[in-house]
Specification:
- A hairpin with a 2-residue loop joins strand 3 and strand 4.
- This protein has 346 residues and is α+β, with helices and mostly antiparallel strands.
- The chain starts with a helix and ends in a 6-residue tail after the last helix.
- Helix 4 crosses helix 7 (310-340).
- 23% of the residues lie in helices and 33% in strands.
- It has helices spanning 2-15, 41-52, 152-155, 187-194, 200-203, 303-308, 310-340; strands at residues 21-22, 59-64, 75-79, 82-88, 94-98, 112-114, 117-119, 126-127, 140-142, 146-150, 174-183, 208-215, 218-219, 225-226, 229-238, 241-253, 256-264, 270-277, 288-297.
- The strands form five sheets. Strands 1, 11, 12, 15, 16, 17, 18 and 19 form an eight-stranded antiparallel beta sheet that branches. Strands 2-10-9 form a three-stranded antiparallel beta sheet, with no helix packed on it.
Length: 346
């Protein structure tokens, strides 16, 4: 009995280990180890190329699930130059289709949803989501956090019945938040940014410290590549208080990069970065939406309170994502500019 109790006590102490650590005094920003040698352009380019070769089934993320509300107004998006309108039926089913009214081309995003039907404000034409007068609905998918639309003419791949949704923590005691930003670049520039974890502590010192890439993608037997970046990093909270974790970065499809915490506080939590083109491929001034979903989980008892306070926490999470992406979009836009003028070193 004593042995069992001692084991339980040890497990209890491990479970209640404080998430915060006081960082020992280490080198400042300029004194940290340079990472440019490890961040080899060819390594990042190869990882980007392999990500681009994976199937997406022509699915594109268009926003957060909660942005398209039952009984709420329609939402308009543009994906690859295609105008898209989204709304929900009176039973909560997601609908989507071309954003121009089939009558005289009115913008359906400015319409109204009445009893689950999308009603055009120009002449009152009502659409229930079924084909009508040349207006054809788009396949849609709501994964509980994000909304996806399938555009076969834009993607140009063999279509898949469902999008490639990353594995997430089980629903229940989670906190999820979605932040969207738009930059002048192409999706590959956003994905390349995320497949370069070496820049974290240098470019975002307000958020990351003591970052080490302990494993980069490498060839395995048979020519296969284990396409994971494994990182040990501490998230800066305040002053010298940090949260150390181990995380891995993967790209399950061409426009998505997932960071998953594998060890440390919030193990299993994910940050999904989805890059959705707004302009047609090859546009002179491309624009890309970064839709980032944070799905946080923890086995700590106190996390149930955090989950209950999710409406209060979401703006704080979005604000943190927004600060990072102000920097990272500048990174992606610079990459696009250099590529467009033949000056990109990679």
């Amino acid at each position: 009995m004593n042995g069992e109790r001692t084991g339980r006590e040890r497990a209890g102490r491990a479970r209640w280990t404080p998430p915060l650590r006081r960082r020992r005094k280490g080198p400042g920003w300029a004194g940290q180890e340079p990472t440019w040698r490890a961040a080899r352009p060819a390594l990042i380019a190869d990882a980007l190329k392999r990500a681009g070769a994976r199937p997406s089934g022509n699915w594109f993320v268009v926003g957060a699930s909660r942005e398209v509300r039952t009984g709420g107004p329609p939402r308009g998006r543009t994906v690859g130059g295609v105008e898209v309108v989204l709304w929900r039926s009176d039973t909560g089913e997601l609908r989507a289709g071309p954003g121009a009214c089939p009558h005289l081309g009115a913008p359906l995003r400015s319409g109204a949803v009445v009893c689950g039907e999308l009603v055009c404000r120009w002449h009152g034409l009502a659409l229930d989501g079924a084909p009508f007068a040349g207006w054809e609905p788009f396949p849609v998918h709501d994964d509980g956090v994000l909304v996806w639309v399938r555009l076969d003419a834009v993607g140009g791949e063999d279509p898949l019945e469902r999008p490639v949704v990353p594995v997430r923590p089980a629903p229940g005691r989670i906190v999820d938040a979605v932040h969207t930003a738009v930059g002048r670049c192409e999706p590959q520039d956003v994905v390349a940014n995320r497949l370069d974890p070496w820049h974290g502590a240098w470019f975002h010192p307000y958020s990351f410290v003591d970052l080490q890439v302990v494993r980069a993608p490498e060839a395995a037997s048979g020519g296969e590549v284990d396409d994971r970046f494994v990182v040990e990093v501490s998230f800066r909270v305040a002053g010298r208080l940090v949260v150390p974790v181990r995380a891995e970065f993967t790209a399950p499809e061409p426009r998505t990069v997932v960071m998953r915490i594998t060890e440390g506080e919030g193990a299993g939590s994910v940050v999904e970065t989805h890059a959705t083109p707004l302009t047609p491929e090859g546009a002179a001034q491309p624009r890309t939406a970064v839709v980032e979903a944070v799905v946080a989980a923890s086995d700590r008892r106190g996390f149930a309170l955090a989950a209950a306070a999710a409406p209060v926490l979401r703006p704080l999470i979005r604000r943190a994502s927004g600060r990072l992406w102000r920097d990272d979009l500048a990174y992606a836009e610079r990459r696009w500019e250099l590529r467009g003028t033949g000056r990109f070193p990679g």
